[in-house]
Amino acid sequence: MFPAFFLIAAAFATYVMLGRMVSGQTANIGNMRALGIRGRTITWHYAAIGLVLGIVASVVGVILCALLAEIFTRLYTGVLSIPEAIVVIRPATVVAAFATGVLTGLVAAWIPARSAGRTSPATAMRGQLPPGGGGESLLERLIPPLRGLPVRWLSAIRGLGRARRRSVASVIGVMLATMLVVATWGFLDSFEALLERQFVDIQQYDAQLHVSGRPAAEVAADVTAVEGVEAVEEALVVPVAVMGPDGSYSTMLTALEPEAEMHRLLDAGGSTLPVPTEGVLLGLALESDLGVGVGDSVTIDVAGLATLDDVPVAGFVKEPLGTFAYTSLPYATEVVGEAFGVAMPAEQDPANLLMLTFDDGVVGSEMRTPLSEIDGVEAFVDSNAFYDLVQGFMGLFYVVVGVMIVLGGVLAFTLIYNTMSANISERQGELAVLRTLGLSRRAIGSMVTLQNLILTLIGLIPGLIGGWLITWVFMITMSSDMFAFDLYIRPATFVVTAIAIIIVGLLSQWPALRAVDRLDLGQLVRDRSF
After folding, report:
1. Which residues touch 246 (CB under 8 Å, ≥6 apart)?
2. Bridge partners, 357 (sequence order)
3. Is 164 exposed, middle or buried (0-12, 13-18, 19+ CB in 10 A)?
4. Cα separation of 433 and 516, whole Å?
5. Residue stretches of the chain with pLDDT short of 70
6. Which of 160, 273, 458, 496 has CA 20 to 30 A from 30's CA?
7. Model pLDDT, residue 104
8. How many CB atoms lie under 10 A from the CB of residue 294?
C-alpha cells in the first residue's frame, strides 16, 4: 500500500510538471495547430514525454532498489542472527515494478496531453488570459474585514480564484505531501503505542515462573521468601481449542486469581474487566471468527484430552499481541476437575505459572539464578528482558519505516516545490508587468508568499485528516487474530508535520522568485503586448 501511495503522489507531481509544460508552450501548440498538425499528434507528443519519464525513472528505480534489496536483506538477517543471507530478485518482480512505473508516467501525462491536443489555434495564440473577471473572493465574503486590506493584499487573495486549476493543483500537492508524512510517521506512532499497551498497560509483572512437580502454592511460598520479590500471583495456562457456531480456534486458556492485578484484562474501549467468576473472556477477534457474543456458550477442548461443553462467554478482551481466553482460577479448578472426571476440591491447586513483581531497583537478570534454583521451577522468563528483545527487533522496523519517512519527506518536498514553482512560473508575465509598473521585488515576493501560504494552509487541514484516515486503513489491513493494531497518532506528529509543510512551502518558492528577479522585463512585456 505504501508503494501505491507513493506512486499516486509521483503521478500527481508528473501531472503538474507536464501541465506546466503545456501551459508554457501554449503559443507553440497554437502555431502547430495552425500549421495543420492534428490534435491527436500533439496529444501523443506530450504523452510520449510522460512515457519517456516513466521509462527512465523506472530503469533507475529498478537498479537502485535491486541494490537496496541486498542491503535490507542483509540487515534483516543480521538482526535475526541468521548466518547466511540469500538475496534473490525474481524477474517477475522487476517486470512488475518497471511496468508500474512506466504506466504511472503515461497516465499522469495523459490529461495535460489531451488538453494540449484539444487546444484550438485561436485560443492558444491569444496566450494566457485570466479565466474570469474580478470581484470579491470567497475569503472576503466569509471574512468581511478582509475587504479593508491594502490593494496588493486583496490582489493576492483574489488571485487565488482567477486561476482555479492552478490553485487547486497547489492545494492537492500540499494535501498529498501532508498525507505522505502523517501516514508514515503515524504508522510508527501506532506500533509504538501497541507495544506500550501490551508490555506496560496489560503485563504488570516483571517475570514468570513455570512450575511443575510441586504444588504452585508451595513454590510461591519459597519464591516470596527470596529477597527482592515483591509479590506473587498464581495462574494456570493450558492449550485449548475454543469451538463456536462458525468454527474453532486454537489458543491458550489462562486462569487468573479472582483479584489478579499483574495481568490486566482490557476491553475494546481500554477499560479494565474483572476476572470472570464463571465462564471465559475471549479475545475480541473470536467474536466474529466463532460467531459468538456475550452470554453465548462455547465448547472448549482442553489439551486434546477432555471437552468442556456449554462454557458461557463472559465478555471479550482486546490485546495487541495474540488472541487468548481467560477465566478465574477457582472456576478452572472446578471445570478442569470435572473434565477429567476428578472430584477436585476448590482448595486443590492446579496452577502451573507464577507471575512476579520485583522490588524497585531489582534487575530481572539478577533474580534468574536464585529463583531458578527453587525446587519445582522449570523455567524463568524475564518479561522486561523480553520487552527489551522486542525493542531490539524494533530497530529493523525503525529502519524500514525510517526509509519510508525519508522517501515520503523527499516526495513531499518534491510535490510542494513542483506545484509552488509552477504556480510562480505560470505567472511570470504578470509578475514582470507588476515590476515594470514600479512594484518592488519585496512587495511582489510578499504577494506571492501570501498566496502560497493561504494555499498551504487550505491544503494542510484535509491533508492531516487524510493522513489520519490512511494510517487507519493501514492499521485495519495489518490487524489479525495475532496482532490488533489500533490507530494512534501523537498530537506532536500533527504539529511537527504542519510546521514542516509550511516551512517547505515557503522555501520551495525561493528559487522561482529568484528566477522572476532575473527576468528580462522588456522582452516579457513586449511578448505579452504582442
Report:
1. 289, 290, 291
2. 231
3. exposed
4. 11
5. 24, 79-80, 122-140, 147, 149, 151-153, 155-156, 159-163, 304, 335-349, 393-396, 422-429, 512-513, 515-530
6. 160
7. 82
8. 13
Task: Give the whole-angstrom CA distance, residue 60 versus residue 68.
Answer: 12
For residue 280, count other CB atoms closer than 10 A to its CB: 27
Nine cell digits for residue 335: 471445570
- The secondary structure of the chain in percent helix, strand, coil, rounded to multiples of 5, reads 60, 15, 25
Give residue 181's pLDDT.
Answer: 83
CB atoms near residue 312 (< 10 Å): 14
Confirm if 184 and 403 have CB atoms less than 8 A apart. no
Please report which helix (H) or strand (E) contains residue 508, including its range: helix 491-508
CA pair distance 209, 454, nearest whole angstrom: 61
The string of DSSP letters for 51-112 reads: HHHHHHHHHHHHHHHHHHHHHHHHHHHHHTT-S-------HHHHHHHHHHHHHHHHHHHHHH
The candidate with the shortest Cα–Cα distance to 469, out of 499, 498, 489, is 489
pTM > 0.85: yes or no: no
C-alpha cell at 221: 511460598
Residue 160 confidence (pLDDT): 67
Residues 6+ apart with CB under 8 A from 359: 228, 229, 230
The answer to whether 471 touches 309, Cβ cutoff 8 Å, is no
**Residue pair 7/100 in contact by the 8 Å Cβ criterion:** yes
**Radius of gyration over every alpha carbon of the chain, rounded to an integer in angstroms:** 33
Are 49 and 21 within 8 A, CB to CB?
yes
Under a CB-based contact definition with an 8 Å cutoff, are residues 382 and 365 in contact?
Answer: yes
CA dist list (Å): 227 to 223, 224, 370, 371: 9, 8, 9, 10
Assigned C-alpha cell, 377:
521451577
Residues β-bridged to residue 507 = none
392-396 contacts: CB < 8 A, separation 24 or more?
392/79, 393/79, 393/80, 394/191, 394/195, 395/79, 396/75, 396/76, 396/79
The contacts of residue 276 (CB under 8 Å, 6+ apart) are 314, 315, 326, 327, 328, 331
- In angstroms, the CA 203 to CA 223 distance is 20
> d(Cα 286, Cα 319) in Å, to the nearest integer?
12
Q: How far apart are CA 497 and CA 404, in angstroms?
A: 15
